[in-house]
Amino acid sequence: IFSRFRQLGSARQTHLALHREGMHFPRPSDGRKLTALDWTPIRYRNVISVLKNPFYAGAYAYGKSKSRTAVVDGRAHKTYGHIRPLDEYDVLLKDHHERYIDWGIYGRNQKQLAINAYGQRDGAKSGRGGRSLLIGLMTCGQCGHRLRVAYRGRYPYPVYQCIGRTAHGLPRCMCFGGQRVDTAIARELMRVVQPIAIQAALVAERTHMETQREQQRILELELQQARYEASLAERRYAACDPDNRLIAAQLEKNWETSLRRVSEYEARLDDIKTHNSATPTPDFTGLAEDLDAAWSSSSVTMRTRQQLVRALINDITVNIDEADCEIVLTIHWKGGRHSTLRLRKPQSGEHECVTSDDALAIIESMASRWSDEHIAATLNRMGLPTAQGKSWTAKRVGS
Question: Which end of the chain is more exposed for a tag (fewer CB within 10 A), N or C?
Answer without folding.
Answer: C
